[in-house]
Design a protein that fits this description.
single chain; 571 residues; alpha+beta; five-stranded antiparallel sheet; five-stranded mixed sheet; 17 helices; 37% helix; globular; binds ligand G3I; binds ligand 9MR
Length: 571
């Protein structure tokens, strides 16, 4: 085969845009290649792996002129049960040249063109973080910042009612409170404290661990140009909302701010349903305490001298009174009241929330009374965190900011966990540590990457970093579906996400920068009529609006993506 022709063949429509940056081109279909690459490309000095799904012997890497710049042998096939398919590894890590390339297998199959250069991920840093800006409640998205996705403000949340489930002596049912700002949780317009907990913490962790990147990245948001870094400003938009969710009379925190039922697919300013704060709960209150205690210790470092000190002090007080409420109410599990049907984020196991909140309280106060709860122990085994399983966040803080035995124990737990993840990655047919595809599987992938980057930060061991890159490669196209999972990014991104604004704005392109939930088989019947979907978890994904279980977006899924990209940029 004349490899020069590859660049003019139909499946390579992405080349011209790829040569510039990791942009999108909708003309390409994933079935047109059996050779799977990261659609954004690879960093010159780091491992470079592609996969081929057909039987194959040799491969070559060709440059834009069609010249072979690297050749090698395709590895033996490995069966991946989750996709019921065989994958063969193509390793061209030794190629350090920059440019735009393709993998060609046995002179017959070609991958998409992809770049190798130092800034392949730099281009998408701001995009991934700006997704949060687009999900701000109570604020118009101005075209200066939002481009074609500009929209009027919705959900001011200045007249929110206390739901009967949240009534107290000082705030009886129907009391009107103000709870403005904050991010919409996901494709829906409600705001949930439990999910905001892990999200806001992960964003703050990116700000503090990668402060230099944070100082540098301009997000083009209304606060850009002030004295506070943009990622911090973006995160404070949600933190300030979280503060309003605490009842000042007793320190307890409402589980969520919500309509009684999900809104239709309409724009924010069209939404007229009454919003309520619903039942206080132990998980929400402890997650809140943890985030506030972390913020109290860290946000002061940003902005001009002492600019954020008053906010940090409010966070500190809020953390203390929330924790006290939880001590008096240690086991209040949240369940949707009978007249509320929006997202539940229900969780009846509080060991992990106690561990995380106590760890943060200990780090904030230095008070030994919290250490009995926060010393690392068997009931809080480290694992990939999610909204309902937050112990690992406690380990992160203790390892990064703790001292002596507490720090040592936490570092050891994280390193052992990262070793486990790396070994799973190495034996995986598709270079993936994640074992089980849950609802939001893409966030599981991103969160394993976060754990590895933290292990890298603690040890300097490059193996962890390289394995985190594998997670990023998966999200950017090197996966059995052969597609990017981030809107507006890569050659074949999600187009029809379950996101009310994207579904209602009349614009073909979805709001950019969002990581979709990704493949899983939890609710194969989410669409009515049913959209046929693979029974194999790695392939069970539908890029259709109705698929809330595979194609919704959510703040807790984007936050670890931001952390991953920030961590890679920090190099
Ligand atoms: O914890 C069990 C685990 O023990 C079991 O092995 C596994 C088997 O599938 O299920 C696990 O529970 C899952 C749970 O998430 C925790 O991961 C449930 O199956 C799964 O249905 C549940 O999905 C959650 C979904 O809401 C439905 O409640 C997602 O994590 C959560 O991200 C999603 O959140 C929604 C909000 O409610 C509303 N806003 C949008 C948001 C994103 O879709
Ligand atoms: O749109 C809702 C989405 O944001 C939630 O994550 C999801 C799970 O709670 O529910 C979606 O709403 C669906 C509802 O649960 C069932 N009927 C169809 C709704 C989507 O239009």
């Amino acid at each position: 085969m004349n490899t020069k022709n590859l660049f003019s063949s139909a499946c390579l429509a992405g080349l011209s845009v790829l040569a510039v940056s990791c942009a999108t081109d909708k003309g390409w279909s994933p079935s047109s290649t059996k050779v799977i690459v990261d659609q954004c490309g690879y960093l010159p000095a780091y491992p470079k792996v592609a996969f081929v799904t057909e039987a194959a012997n040799n491969f070559a890497i060709i440059n834009q002129k069609g010249d072979k710049v690297y050749e090698g042998k395709v590895a033996t096939a490995q069966y991946y049960a989750e996709a019921d398919q065989k994958f063969r590894r193509i390793d061209f890590s030794d190629l350090k040249e920059t440019g735009v390339f393709q993998v060609v297998v046995d002179d017959t199959l070609a991958s998409l063109p992809f770049p190798i250069n130092h800034s392949v991920y730099t281009d998408i840093l701001a995009t991934s973080a700006r997704a949060f800006y687009y999900n701000r409640s109570g604020m118009a998205i101005d075209s200066i910042y939002g481009g074609k996705w500009a929209r009027p403000a919705g959900h001011p949340d200045t007249t929110v009612m206390v739901h009967w489930s949240a009534a107290s002596k000082e705030r009886p049912e129907g009391t009107v409170i103000s709870s403005p700002r904050g991010w919409y949780d996901a494709g829906d317009y409600n705001k949930y404290i439990v999910n905001s907990g892990i999200t806001t913490y992960t964003m703050l962790l990116a700000c503090t661990q990668y402060a230099k990147v944070t100082e540098k990245v301009n997000l083009n948001i209304p606060e850009s140009g002030n004295s506070i870094p943009d990622l911090v400003d973006e995160t404070l938009y949600n933190l300030r909302w979280m503060l309003t969710m605490q009842d000042p009379n007793d320190g307890g925190v409402y589980h969520k701010l919500t309509t009684l039922n999900f809104e239709a697919f309409i724009m924010p300013d069209q939404c007229k349903q009454q919003r309520y704060v619903v039942a206080k709960g132990t998980a929400a209150t402890l997650d809140f305490a943890a985030v506030m205690a972390y913020a109290a210790r860290h946000i002061g470092q940003f902005g001009q001298e002492n600019e954020l000190a008053p906010l940090a002090d409010s966070c500190r007080q809020a953390a203390i009174s929330a924790y006290e409420w939880a001590i008096k109410n240690p086991g209040v599990a949240f369940r949707n009241p009978k007249d509320v049907s929006t997202g539940e984020y229900g969780d009846g196991t509080f060991n992990d929330e106690w561990f995380w909140a106590s760890s943060e309280m200990y780090l904030m106060t230095g008070d030994e009374k919290y250490t009995s709860m926060s010393s690392c122990n068997a009931t809080n085994k480290i694992s990939t965190p999610n909204w309902g399983d937050v112990a690992t966040l406690g380990y992160y803080s203790l390892a990064l900011d703790g001292k002596d035995n507490v720090k040592e124990e936490a570092v050891k737990a994280i390193v052992d966990f990262a070793d486990e993840l790396v070994s799973l990655d190495k034996t995986s047919p598709i270079a993936l540590s994640m074992q089980t595809y849950e609802w939001g599987s893409n966030s599981t992938v991103a969160n394993t990457g976060v754990a590895k980057l933290i292990a890298y930060k603690l040890t300097g061991n490059k193996e962890y970093f390289n394995s985190a890159l594998d997670d990023l490669h998966y999200l950017l196209g090197r996966n059995p579906l052969n597609r990017s999972f981030i809107t507006g990014v890569g050659v074949y991104p999600p187009m029809d996400i379950h996101h009310r604004q994207s579904g209602a704005d009349g614009i073909v392109d979805p709001v950019p920068g969002f990581l979709c939930g990704g493949p899983n088989t939890v609710v194969p019947t989410d669409c009515d009529p049913i959209v046929p979907r693979s029974q194999f978890p790695a392939l069970a994904y539908s890029d259709v609006l109705c698929s809330y279980s595979t194609n919704e977006v959510a703040i807790n899924w984007n936050a670890p993506l931001v952390f991953l990209l920030w961590g890679v940029e920090n190099l």
